[in-house]
């Protein structure tokens, strides 16, 4: 029986231009907001009914925050928005010639299509092997990692086998970008300040944290000074960092590295990279390096009335010959500009090209330990940590969420405690299990 047989999109016919947005991430939200009150019918599609603030997913995974504090209901974001329609649906195919999309609950024609469905975890051709690892792109994935981590320590208390204890208490993080560095730092804080109080019968000297990266330094997208500071901060948490090294094999029990090192570990966090989440129907001629090729106006090359924003978009410029950075600020700025450009186009005015305004990059390693790259200088330590917190608080959607996150951070700072160490749902892994991907 088809579970979607009696379901329909039910979008009203209209004389207005219909803008269909695929993805409720940073870019999708910004363009939807920007079109309000300008004579468009706006349809937003996402497989979830909420927006996720992905930069803080690692804190959900490491028991620092609850998932609802970094998520905002999409319908709530667009209350009192005339001619706006949200549908929780997965887009399965695009037909550019007919200007039509297919979903599991019906088809929909568009005047303008905006693809802003983000990226998915890049396993670099090793999909089957790395189905055993934990990516961090979605809230369910973060909860899986949290459950796995806490279950490991509960099992460590119950086992007498030294090798099994090693497998349960060793953690390997693959990827030295911001996510990998932040996860490693959070695990280091748990090891030093939190878990020993919960599990006094475990000798936490046996817990080893490993960060593995194929590149020559951490935080490759930031300055060398920031990389050096991050390495220093991780060393203070006893994180063993291996550079110029990649994972050669993983069977769920042991990690084999390219230098021959074998690490017994039942938990491997995959933060080694992402790629565009391409929807069927986009021709190969419009793709480059696993992303959708767009011009300076975010229009998909070779396809009429189709745009792509954020991580999914590959916009080459003299300044960024390898495409714009896959960062939230890029997606936000592109979404805002495209909304203004569609309004300009509706008034027969010239559209303006995108020019990314880089306000800086940042990453945190833990309490009082962060690095910030500004356009002209770099700084770290406590001041950088305060800036990191301030910027992230402002970026979270909803006053309630900001208040909850801030109160959690204040509590954690003064008590060295994490208040969400709950195994709400037991995580059970097998070799046929596949971590879900984004829309």
Automatic annotation (TrEMBL):
Residues 359-414 form the External alternative NADH-ubiquinone oxidoreductase-like C-terminal domain. SUPFAM superfamilies: FAD/NAD(P)-binding domain (SSF51905). Pfam families: NDH2_C, Pyr_redox_2. Belongs to the NADH dehydrogenase family. GO terms for molecular function: NADH dehydrogenase (quinone) (non-electrogenic) activity. It catalyses: a quinone + NADH + H(+) = a quinol + NAD(+). PANTHER family: EXTERNAL NADH-UBIQUINONE OXIDOREDUCTASE 1, MITOCHONDRIAL-RELATED, NADH DEHYDROGENASE. It is an enzyme of class 1 (oxidoreductase). The chain crosses the membrane at residues 377-399. This is NADH:ubiquinone reductase (non-electrogenic). Residues 18-335 form the FAD/NAD(P)-binding domain. Its EC number is 1.6.5.9.
């Amino acid at each position: 029986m088809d579970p979607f047989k009696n379901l329909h999109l039910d979008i009203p016919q209209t004389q207005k231009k219909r803008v269909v947005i695929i993805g409720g991430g940073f870019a999708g939200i910004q363009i939807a907001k920007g079109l309000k009150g300008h004579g468009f019918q706006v349809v937003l599609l996402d497989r979830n009914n909420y927006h996720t603030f992905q930069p803080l997913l690692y804190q959900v995974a490491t028991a620092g925050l609850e998932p609802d504090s970094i998520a905002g209901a999409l319908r709530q974001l667009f209350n009192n928005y005339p001619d706006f329609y949200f549908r929780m649906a997965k887009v399965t195919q695009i037909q550019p010639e007919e200007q039509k999309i297919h979903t599991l609950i019906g088809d929909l024609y568009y005047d303008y299509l905006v693809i802003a469905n983000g990226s998915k975890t890049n396993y670099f051709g090793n999909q089957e092997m790395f189905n055993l690892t934990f990516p961090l792109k979605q809230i369910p994935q973060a909860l899986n990692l949290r459950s796995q981590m806490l279950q490991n320590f509960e099992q460590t208390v119950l086992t007498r086998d030294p090798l099994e204890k090693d497998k349960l208490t060793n953690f390997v993080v693959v990827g030295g970008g911001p996510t990998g560095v932040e996860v490693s730092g959070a695990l280091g804080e748990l090891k030093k300040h939190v878990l020993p109080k919960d599990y006094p019968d475990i000798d936490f000297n046996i817990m080893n944290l490993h960060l593995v990266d194929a590149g020559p330094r951490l935080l490759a997208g930031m300055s060398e000074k920031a990389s050096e500071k991050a390495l220093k901060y991780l060393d203070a948490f006893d994180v063993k960092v291996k550079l110029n090294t990649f994972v050669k094999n993983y069977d769920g029990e042991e990690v084999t590295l390219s230098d021959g090192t074998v690490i017994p570990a039942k938990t491997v966090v995959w933060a080694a990279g992402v790629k565009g989440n391409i929807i069927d129907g986009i021709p190969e001629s419009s793709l480059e390096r696993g992303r959708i090729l767009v011009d300076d106006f975010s229009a998909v090359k070779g396809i009429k009335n189709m745009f792509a924003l954020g991580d999914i978009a590959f916009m080459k410029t003299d300044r960024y010959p390898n495409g714009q950075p896959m960062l939230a600020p890029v997606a936000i700025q592109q979404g805002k500009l495209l909304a203004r450009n569609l309004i300009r186009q509706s008034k027969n005015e010239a559209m303006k090209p995108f020019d990314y305004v880089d306000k800086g990059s940042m990453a945190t390693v833990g309490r009082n330990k962060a690095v910030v790259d500004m356009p002209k200088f770099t700084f770290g330590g406590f001041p950088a940590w305060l800036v990191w917190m301030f910027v992230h608080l402002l970026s979270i959607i909803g006053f309630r969420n900001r208040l909850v996150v801030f109160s959690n951070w204040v509590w954690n700072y003064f008590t060295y405690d994490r208040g969400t160490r709950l195994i709400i749902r037991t995580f059970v892994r097998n070799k046929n299990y596949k971590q879900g991907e984004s829309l």
